[in-house]
């Protein structure tokens, strides 16, 4: 680790809570490995104080911020310009303080998701996909899949209207992609899972108060010709991934996506990036060994 001096540039995370976040470990590991004169800190920020936090960070000379729950939507209001991904998904997870006081808002979740699929040699082009969830994470996943030219996406959400709204927002981004929204209680969901090449859980079911539960628990709908991806990385594997693995599906947890979206943010702040997939392996091992995951 390089010494912190008056020239060290500061990066940070705002959210509430941030005490269990892996981002400081992840980013400082990457900063050290790249030999950069930066440090990354976590700042708890209450709902209603996002504007002050963002402006304050700029005035203090921070170079960038990550934004996490519950501020990703609110942050959209306090930046001067939005990337296309942030505009379409309605969520900012990366803020860059550019030249001339301009504050830029971006969303790197979709890039982290797509890059993690690449690591698993899965090309979404022309594939059939089913996404559980219609919140911020689901928006990033659907945006990425649409950009990659999948054949179709079925968005399955407990609150059907939110799924319909998400499908509507993504329509027109890529005219060839067929988007549909279904309620979680729909009678055809099992069948739709069965004919999907990729099934993604982008809900919070399986962690926190629903730890041990699965968004879909009929293992007979999963099979060996598909990938089942759970954005949750703690715990890992989730019940969903255990059921899918029992049925022979290839399973992916959310840790690679977390790492890869974080490295995308670091690249946007510093211009530096890792070129090899081995870095992700090393980071994954480091994060699993350093505690904070169980
Ligand atoms: P969010 O915006 O609050 O959305 C939550 C989603 O979960 C909604 O679709 C909600 O459905 C659904 N849901 C919650 N409880 C449910 C229940 N009991 N039964 C059925 N559906 C339920 O949250 P988010 O930001 O999208 O995050 C979702 C998950 O993704 C979290 O676990 C988060 O940690 C994870 N995530 C991982 C990464 C990564 O890098 N690996 C990145 C981002 C997020 P309703 O619309 O019906 O409420």
SSE order and pairing:
Elements: E1 9-15, H1 23-34, E2 38-44, H2 50-59, E3 64-67, E4 81-82, H3 84-89, E5 94-97, E6 103-106, H4 109-119, E7 128-132, H5 136-147, E8 152-157, H6 160-170, E9 178-183, H7 189-194, E10 198-201, E11 227-230, H8 239-246, E12 250-252, H9 255-270, H10 278-289
Parallel strand pairs: 1-2, 1-3, 4-6, 7-8, 7-10, 8-9, 10-11, 11-12
Antiparallel strand pairs: 3-5, 5-6
Helix pairs in contact: 1-9, 4-5, 4-9
This protein binds NADP nicotinamide-adenine-dinucleotide phosphate.
Based on CA atoms alone, the radius of gyration comes out at 19 Å
3D shape: globular
* Distinct compounds present: NADP nicotinamide-adenine-dinucleotide phosphate
| CATH architecture designation of the largest domain | 3-Layer(aba) Sandwich
Strand order of the largest sheet: 2-1-3-5-6-4
Largest sheet: 6 strands, mixed
Number of strands: 12
**How many helices does DSSP assign?**
10
Please write the CATH class name of the largest domain.
Alpha Beta
**Structure class:** alpha/beta
Strand content: 15-25%
